[in-house]
Amino acid sequence: MDEEHVKGIFLKVLIDTVNNRVIFTESDEDFVDVLLSFLTMPLGTIIRLIRNKPPVVRIGCLNNLYKSIENLDVHRFRTEACKTMLLYPRNAAAAQCKRLKLNIDDGEPLKYFVCKRLDCSLFEYQMLSHYRGAICGCGEDMDYEMGLCEKEPKRRGFDARDRGVFVKGLTRLIISDKLEVMPASTETKLGIMDGNTTEECNRYISEDEVSTLLKCSLASKAPLTETLWKHNLEPKLDTNAFDQGSCNESRMEEPASNVSEEIHDKPMIMGKSKTKVHYAETDDDFPEANYSLEEPASCFESNVNRGSSTSINLVISKSKNIVYYAEANEDFVDLLFSFLTVPLGYLVKKTSGITSKGCINHLYNSAEEALYLKSFEHKEMLLDPKLAHNLRHENQLLDIDEVINPQYYYAEHHECANNKILTSDKTLFPSQGVLFSMLTVTDPKSEYDEATRGGFVMGSAKFNITDNLIVTPISPVSCLSFLKERSVPFDDIEERVVRMDDEEAFCLLVASFVSESALTDAFLRDPNPEY
């Protein structure tokens, strides 16, 4: 590793010595590429990278979701790959991000596995998996790893303008303390009125500091100051940023007269809102009916025509209007776990900067207005990021697209020593003596002979979900303990069934990102009067 890479990326930092803050940094495309890559990262990757970095910053309830997946036995998932896909969600822009000068994503690169019976890849089932251990149609494990044969880039005369990942080479930019990216020579817009109170500092930013900057971008109004100067971040995401005003109507069924005895005993973080949910349960046997709260505050609109949906049963405290926990089947848990696969840029785009405690919305807006990006395709990767392939699941409720795999080919050339070829470019085949097949990329969440794309969690299962999204297999004993420890009177609890569609699912995604009482804030919280 060369000395420059060990040092990191060179920055010129302008310091306000009176207010002890960073005014802006000046850098080339390398640093801005790293910043913009934050928008492509799945939320699960962000949690994995920052959750153990002191001081710990909790990102809503996502830390609990991630920990729940870690703690859940692998046999609770449809396949072993399902757990891996959630803990290490792939980035749809991984091919670009691997070229970053500082790439903090510690996930594995894309891999390629075929059936260990190589004739099967050529003549029979012709399948390819990006995860080791998938089962081929012939019943064998797909654990024979191959490298992808790719065309060498055309050799041209060196042009520094071709450097950069998302940003054009030879670009000099300044980045404000709140992550606004601007052309150079705009210092006056940043409040520089007296050169006697400023000081220039030259330094390198390391991989570890980039991870800190990612954390600060979500939790601080001054992420550069916190990362490069003060090193004392202790905020958390602002729950007041959660806009429930556009999700006012609730579709709930009439309260049940009895109370489920299956209540979970995990601790719950209680929020400040007036209305909260105690627990939720999904069940396809509930009759369809509409129930409206006296103070409409959830994210449902009953007059919207939607496709897929799922039902959850909420247990609500009548006196406190709070959620203790929820019971749910695998459809709802699939939805919750899928939040970790969503790219950060998708959330920022859909919420117009809901993370008001941080500055990631300023970074998004800078990319939206930028003239320094390499192409329209690069801009789309940042502003409208997609799910990596195979991360969508059956009954997907979030309105997010998935990237399309290229067509892969497996070939054998019997006259070559290294006669096995995997490629997405047929022009790389030798001109003669080649047998090849078109491979089908398997869905690692499903078995070969399943007709539909499955979810992540095994079917016919029930789970407890606390208000702060701790997910565990259901346990009647722990449910009773939960009520007993909190001295909850049974006559203070009522059950309600909520039908969730795409808009409700998105409201829950937002709540899980900004709130530590996600079920309450998604389904029962009063609309914010400021919106």
UniProtKB/TrEMBL annotation:
InterPro entries the record matches: DUF674
Superkingdom per UniProt: Eukaryota
Pfam family, one: DUF674
Protein name per UniProt: Uncharacterized protein
